Amino acid sequence: MHAAFAEALLSPESDHPPGLRTWNGSDPGPRFAVYRNNLVVSLVDALADTYPVVQEMVGVEFFRAMAREFVRLQPPSSPVLAHYGAGFAEFIAAFPPAASLPYLPDLARLEMMRVEVYHAADDAPAMRVLHSRHAVASLWSAHQVDDVDAALAQVDPAVAEIALVLRNGLDVLVMRIGEVP
């Protein structure tokens, strides 16, 4: 029953799982549909929280459609929501509608590194390094200022960069530390 329930939650075209009942004997289908929608929306929202710059780069509508497909194909495997979406960069790399933005998977990797560094143990060095074929540190930094468009105009996404993601206290910093030869 648990497997059928979980499968039905992530299959919008399927009906409610067999054996599902309500307390008052009414049709469980509409209630299950609300539960399914709430689950998917909460997971898409979690991805948007983890990948805010990716969402800004592609727009909310595109991001949410892409995230819904990711949720359907890769449901959570951990009860810790902060860990959800670790495979999103690889999903984006294989997602044909995102192919025109070759830097997007590395930008997603950078944003997941921010989450990992934020949640890293205090006694270990809380940092990650990303060698990218694209200017992902510069793209990410451009989205941290008031005039994003002006900042983005100064970035050539084709320039390969090395990014350092470092926690300083409770702040997570992203720095461009060099270009990849």
Summarize this structure as a short list of keywords or feature phrases.
181 residues; 3-stranded antiparallel beta sheet
Order of helices and strands: HHHHHHEHHEE
- Poorly predicted runs are none
Per DSSP, the total helix count is: 8
Mean pLDDT: 89
Number of domain modules: 2
Backbone shape: elongated
- How big is the Rg? 19 Å
In total, how many beta strands? 3
Strand content: 5-15%
Structural category is alpha+beta
User: What percent of residues adopt helix (DSSP H or I)?
Assistant: 40-55%
Strand order of the largest sheet: 1-2-3
The main sheet comes to: 3 strands, antiparallel
**How widely separated are the two ends?**
54 Å
Notes on the protein architecture:
The protein has 181 residues and is of the alpha+beta class. It folds into 2 domains: 1-101, no CATH class; 123-181, no CATH class. It is 48% helix and 13% strand. It has 8 helices and 3 strands. The chain has helices at 2-9, 28-50, 52-58, 60-73, 88-93, 104-119, 136-142, 148-153, and strands at residues 127-132, 161-168, 171-179. The chain has a 3-stranded antiparallel sheet with strand order 1-2-3, covered by helices on one side. Strand 2 (161-168) and strand 3 form a beta hairpin. Helix 3 (52-58) packs across helix 4 (60-73) and helix 3 runs antiparallel to helix 6. The longest helix has 23 residues, at 28-50. It is elongated. The model has no long low-confidence stretch (mean pLDDT 89).
